[in-house]
Design goal:
InterPro entries: F420-G6PD/mer, Luciferase-like_dom, Luciferase-like_sf
Number of helices: 12
Oligomer: single chain
Number of domains: 2
Organism: Caldiarchaeum subterraneum
Keywords: Oxidoreductase
Distance between the termini: 23 Å
Strand content: 15-25%
Structural class: alpha/beta
Protein name: LLM class flavin-dependent oxidoreductase
Order of helices and strands: HEHHEEEHEHEHHHHHEHEH
Number of strands: 8
CATH topology of the largest domain: TIM Barrel
CATH architecture of the largest domain: Alpha-Beta Barrel
Low-confidence stretches: none
Helix content: 40-55%
CATH superfamily of the largest domain: Luciferase-like domain
Shape: globular
GO molecular function, one term: oxidoreductase activity, acting on paired donors, with incorporation or reduction of molecular oxygen
Mean pLDDT: 93
């Protein structure tokens, strides 16, 4: 997933990334993102403003440290004097992926990062749209979109969908998220208010009615093993999109079976 430079200074992020890159033998990919507003503001009491500008500076500073080994950096939001990674930065390139949902942050990811991370709860339509945007840019550098995908597997298809609805409600209740991911439903203001209230109260009965099974099928891999495979196969057809499963209410051994089956069909 991601680490937020709004919570941890970019120098600290870069230093940790350098260590992990060396320990992993070059397999490490750094994911950075702003994080959810309520996590930063409400839970931690930290400012969540001018996010695009802050993330731009953060990515540049992190890259400086991981490549040229830093030096002085004086930005509007971040300052680092004589910052460097000791004894030396990684001997190989450390890919930096940027988590994004909004169009401006996605544009920044295409410009500055090596990849884009779409948060769990992104609809199939939104992933396809992002894939088309990437192809239209014809970037000269290798680039990847990673779609974090909620995954709920159960022999009882309905039970799998119901298990996901509270998690999806938490995502959809964030400002602008449902409007972006479920635009075709043309949801009214009353729906949003009821969703926020039910989410705060943890009212699963109301959430089950507000979030239809069809919505779940657009936002996640949920249902039987076959149904989850069908969802993942749609993502697999997007050649620059990779999938990272986010299991909800699913046993690890069942998840591994899905991964094995997926690997056999889409090596």
């Amino acid at each position: 997933s991601i680490v937020s430079p709004l919570i941890r200074h970019p120098v600290t992020v870069a230093t940790a990334a350098s260590s992990l890159a060396e320990l992993s033998g070059g397999r490490f990919v750094l994911g950075v993102g702003a994080g959810a507003r309520r996590w930063v503001e409400d839970y931690l009491g930290l400012p969540y403003s001018q996010v695009l500008s802050r993330m731009t500076e953060a990515v540049k500073l992190i890259r400086n440290l991981l490549t040229d080994n830093g030096g002085d950096f004086q930005g509007r939001w971040f300052r680092a004097m004589r910052a460097r990674i000791t004894p030396k930065p990684p001997s190989h390139h450390v890919p930096v992926y940027l988590g994004a949902v909004g169009e401006k942050m996605k544009k920044l990811a295409f410009q500055l990062a090596d990849g884009l991370i779409l948060s769990a709860g992104s609809s199939l339509g939104y992933v396809r749209q992002t894939h088309e945007e990437l192809l239209s840019l014809r970037l000269s550098k290798p680039y990847e979109v990673v779609a974090l995908t909620f995954t709920s597997i159960n022999r009882n298809s309905q039970a799998a969908k119901e298990a996901l609805k509270p998690e999806l409600a938490s995502i959809l209740s964030r400002p602008g998220r449902a409007e972006t991911m479920l635009a075709e439903y043309r949801l009214e203001a009353e729906w949003f208010e009821r969703l926020r209230t039910a989410t705060e109260r943890g009212d699963k009965a109301i959430l089950s009615k507000l979030i239809s099974d069809d919505m779940v099928d657009q936002l996640a891999a949920a249902g039987t093993m076959d149904e989850c495979m069908e969802y993942l196969s749609k993502l697999a057809k997007l050649r620059k999109v990779s999938t990272a499963l986010v299991p909800i209410g699913t046993e690890i051994k069942t998840l591994f079976k899905l991964m094995e089956r997926f690997g056999e069909n889409y090596p």
